[in-house]
Automatic annotation (TrEMBL):
Keywords: Iron, Metal-binding, Oxidoreductase. The keyword Oxidoreductase applies. This is Fe2OG dioxygenase domain-containing protein. Belongs to the iron/ascorbate-dependent oxidoreductase family. The keyword Iron applies. GO terms for molecular function: metal ion binding; oxidoreductase activity. It comes from Arabis nemorensis. The lineage of its organism: Eukaryota, Viridiplantae, Streptophyta, Embryophyta, Tracheophyta. Gene3D superfamilies: B-lactam Antibiotic, Isopenicillin N Synthase, Chain. Residues 118-218 form the Fe2OG dioxygenase domain.
């Protein structure tokens, strides 16, 4: 609880910096590896706009951290994020353990399918400015996440919605809550038994919303597909998804190309 509070504090200060200082950690254009800062104002095919600033950086494993993408304007940023990474990894492994058991498999099955100790945790800090024209603007358009499983906290401005029973509902959480979102690689590993949660983020007319999703994802060279134990035997268990090297999966999804 206290750690969540501290993470929100240290993670907010970065966005108060002048633009040129934020751009010092700019993300390389069109990179499949998303680390860095980007300010995004986009229009989709249906004329809807999205508007948000994002900062991405890995927080686990230590060997894959690039500290140059971490804000250094807040003295506690590093310590708090390193501690948060350890806690999120524990939580993630616990939940993947329960989800594996729910499939009738051993506790490590989903974690191993996602890459075991090579699984990476990517922090995204999202800054949604106040926005008066709400009908045209989404913070995040409807989507499912590409990675395995997502853990999200946000400041006190609500806006996350989930698609359930054919309608959008507000996701309720309090200050100490972490929202857990099943993402595409768990759907694929479970051969469709766990569905990815479709979600979106709205904006507030007067207040700034900040959210901190952490994405647990395979490393780019890891191959993910339906777990072999789930697709053995008869036709009912036929694989519904092709295995993909995560780099290729991400490329196809980011470019809206066909997959299965
Ligand atoms: O800000 C939010 O609540 C949602 C963000 C999100 O879904 C994403 O970045 O994938
Ligand atoms: Fe998402």
């Amino acid at each position: 609880m206290e750690l969540i509070q501290r993470l929100k504090e240290v993670g907010t200060e970065f966005f108060e910096l002048p633009e040129r200082e934020k751009e010092a950690v700019a993300k390389p254009a069109d990179s499949i590896d998303l680390e860095g800062y980007v300010t995004d104002y986009k229009k989709d095919g249906q004329g809807r706009k999205t508007w948000a600033d994002h900062l991405f950086h890995r927080i686990w494993p230590p060997s894959r951290i690039n500290y140059k993408f971490w804000p250094n304007n807040s003295p506690d940023y590093r310590e708090v994020n390193e501690e948060y990474a350890k806690e999120i990894k524990k939580l993630s492994e616990k939940i993947m353990g329960w989800l594996s058991e729910g499939l009738g498999l051993h506790r490590e099955a989903l974690k191993e399918g996602l890459g075991g100790e090579t699984v990476e945790y990517l922090m995204k800090v999202i800054f949604y400015p106040p926005c008066p024209e709400l009908d045209l603007l989404f913070g995040a358009p409807p989507h499912t996440d590409l990675n395995g499983i997502t853990f999200l906290i946000a400041n006190d401005v609500h806006g996350l919605q989930a698609f359930k029973n054919n309608k959008w509902i507000d996701v309720e959480y309090d200050d100490s809550g972490i929202v857990v979102i099943i993402a595409n690689q768990i759907t694929r590993m479970s051969n469709g038994r766990y569905k990815s949660g479709e979600h979106r983020a709205t904006m507030d007319t007067e207040r700034t919303r900040i959210s901190w999703p952490v994405f647990a994802e395979p490393n780019l060279d890891h191959v993910v597909g339906p777990l072999p134990e789930l697709v053995a035997g008869d036709d009912d268990n036929a694989p519904k998804f092709k295995p993909y090297v995560y780099r290729e999966y991400k490329f196809l999804k980011m470019n809206k190309l066909p997959l299965d």
